[in-house]
Amino acid sequence: MSSVVAAIHPTGKVFHVRGQGATVLQSNWKHWPCLLPQHGPGRKHERPIILEPWQREVVEAFPADFLRGPFHSDGCRVDNWATRVVRGERRRYDYGRWQFVNASDDIRRLCAWALDLLEIPWRRSGDRVISVSRREAVARLDELIGLKS
After folding, report:
1. Contact call for residues 95 and 80 (beta carbons, < 8 A)
2. Rounded to an integer, what is the distance from CA 93 to the centroid of its chain?
3. Each residue's pLDDT tens digit, 3-52
4. Coarse DSSP helix, strand, coil percentages of the chain, rounded to the nearest 5 percent
5. For 46, which DSSP code?
6. Which residue did the predictor score with more confidence, 27 or 125?
7. What angle in degrees, to the nearest 10, is found between the helix axes of 53-61 and 63-74?
8. CA dist 146 to 2, 12, 29, 81, Å?
9. Three-state secondary structure call for residue 94
10. Strand partners, 85
11. Hey, which of 19, 65, 93, 143 has its CA 20 to 30 A from 149?
12. Which pLDDT score, from 0 to 100, does residue 123 have?
């Protein structure tokens, strides 16, 4: 990631701050808001998150790369289960599921849009939750974005 920041701002310094389970990458530059206009004061879910036309073009070209961000930061890959009575006998079914949880309607809308671009079926399983639960859809998302590390 440092190389990406250096490629965008070659004369800037990149700082690494290690925390428990994470490394924070920091680079101070007055033009970051020009490149990332969604960044700003206040909570993400209380301000509009709208992609600029050039950002939309990037997501349209690389939707899987875009989805990796939301699912790896505010999502999870879990093994879910359900029971069903079949011929009088209760059976348990285990299946994988990806879930993305976010308070921002705009961010959830962008996540759903990128899933639609990849033709990955999803559904709302709660007010703030997008779920990908169909076996083939979960396998496709696993392949495209990889498991969280």
Report:
1. yes
2. 27
3. 777 787 888 888 888 877 777 778 888 877 777 666 667 776 677 888 98
4. 40, 30, 30
5. G
6. 125
7. 90
8. 21, 31, 31, 21
9. strand
10. 90
11. 93
12. 97
Could you give the residue ranges of the DSSP H alpha helices within 50-104? 53-61, 63-74
Over residues 42-82, the pLDDT tens digits come to 776 677 888 989 999 999 999 999 999 999 999 999 998 89
Residue owning tokens 């700082």? 15
Query: How high is the mean pLDDT of the chain?
Result: 88
CA distance 141 to 8: 29
**What's the CA gap between 55 and 61, in Å, rounded?**
10
Query: How many Å apart are CA 38 and CA 69, to the nearest integer?
Result: 15
d(CA 16, CA 99): 29
Q: Is residue 112 over pLDDT 80?
A: yes
What pLDDT shows up at residue 45?
Answer: 67
Q: Which residue's entry shows tokens 């709302």?
A: 124
Sheet holding 89-101, edge to edge: 75-86, 89-101, 129-132, 123-126
Count the residues in the chain.
Answer: 149
